[in-house]
Write a structure and sequence with these properties.
This protein is α+β, with helices and mostly antiparallel strands. The chain contains 2 helices and 8 strands, in the order H-E-E-E-E-E-E-E-E-H.
Length: about 140
Amino acid sequence: MNPNPRRPWWLRKRSLLPLLFLLGLAFALVAALARSDTSRIIVYNETGVPIGALRVTACGQETVLQNLDDDESYRWKLAKTGMPGEIGMETASNPPWRWHGGYIKPHGGYRVIISLMPDGEVELQNQISVWQRFLYYVSQQ
């Protein structure tokens, strides 16, 4: 009798590790593609003071940020409903501070980063998911 019977090919180390790597890579690609259609708004408070209440509106949706301390951020994932359009922000102070600008769609992998600066200044950065850019490019060909 042979004390070391030959293992099947899928249980050998030189076959199993590359197979596990490829499965992990495929899983990561599917997860990235599935999440790439979600749009997000990220608000950073860099004003130097806490913000008591800040209402953010986009695509017919609304959220209220409560007690956003200095150097903190809030991430808001939009539902995939609504019309594309501007982003609006308003504080509950007297007089209220209002801002409108930027552009976002409720889906399509948009990420809008808003930095609230001292003296009411707003810095805005728009990004679109690499996967969504690729899908748009492929659909245009």
